[in-house]
């Protein structure tokens, strides 16, 4: 009798139990897949950088950059064709007479920036600028992916750089909090093919959830010196570069191979540096030319500045380039170079300081690009430069969508498109649980009241 009096409660409890069981089976934790907190991450990849230096000051110009970053559910992807760095800042400054700048910032190459907070950000944006194809996409999953693809450049008789592709992604990708950066260079040729490097690839990846793992690698598919193809050791692909340098140094070049390192929570794979070194052949050919020009250089430049003081900026840039070749400074070319960083966001109380998570620079650096390289003059850290213009800052970069093809053979590998998991802890499951308990309590109360009325009615009939 007592059981039948609570039949509505029993029926409601059975329905609630079935609903909760279905939700638990469908939830990530029940299926063995823990939900991953977005945290933060950043990735940076560059194609080619021409880096004239005066002392330790870099005036580099970078060609083909990709950046991606995320923080919590906000993701930003950015692709750039050319970053003029300090030279761009100098030329964008106010004229010497208070007039217009030599090269206004708004006229300089502009980055393609996509933020997950913008409408339509999940649809890949594609632009072409200065011969560079730029691609960017960002979602609130969060995930960000950017790609910058350049054409071949240079002079075959001196140095020719093949097509490059820079790829970055950051976010919760395929169930993991990860940041990745890849640069691929189809090849580089010196002195009309005296030394050729084929299929160069840099990759850095930093994952911090559900497990922590940081990896970096640099590979070469082939090295040819004076028409002879050299074997590539699997454990040390840069070993044969010493033999290449033996041929290149008399021509005035030296290759410094990349290094893989992890510092301050950032995974680096440094660029391969091509340095301009003293060369008897070059100095004997160019030395008399520069010596003959030096007496008239100062008078000519002074006359140009007096006629138009705004020409001083261009003359400064020209001096830097000439000095880097003649020995007063240095000139390097960097190929590739990637960084990746990922972390959780540290929580704190109002009385304590925020610690644990590294402070990352904005994606769009505005006046200068992040610096990649090894120790010494090449720089060992990623710096975001000055603050970005309004509306271009991002939560994070430093160290991807259909990928265009290239001519690098094995370098055609690209990061596969992934679909990040969605959902969050609590939410619908907690609501169904609490609602079900409230409904059961109401049904039990109603059944109990009905049973007591029945008992009173029976007692009155007996009396």
What attributes characterize this protein structure?
463 residues, alpha+beta, 2 domains, 21 strands, 33% strand, elongated
Q: Can I get a quick summary?
A:
With 463 residues, this protein is of the alpha+beta class. The chain is built from 7 helices and 21 strands.
**Residue ranges: pLDDT <50 for 5 or more in a row?**
27-32, 353-362, 364-425
Q: Please compute the radius of gyration using only Cα atoms.
A: 31 Å
Order of helices and strands: HHEEEEHEEEEEEEEEEEHEEEEHHEEH
Please give the largest β-sheet. Answer: 11 strands, antiparallel
* Proportion in β-strands: 25-35%
Tally of distinct domains: 2
Give the overall shape.
elongated
* SSE class: alpha+beta
Helix content: 25-40%
Termini separation comes to 22 Å
Number of strands: 21
Overall pLDDT: 75
Continuous helix count: 7
How would you describe what is shown here?
The chain is of the alpha+beta class. The chain folds into two domains: about 1-30 and about 425-460; about 40-280 and about 330-410, no CATH class. About 25% of the residues lie in helices and about 35% in strands. The protein has seven helices and 21 strands. Strand 1 (about 40-55) and strand 2 (about 55-60) form a beta hairpin. Helix 2 (about 5-25) runs antiparallel to helix 7. The relative contact order is 0.18. Residues about 25-30, about 355-360 and about 365-425 have low confidence and may be disordered.
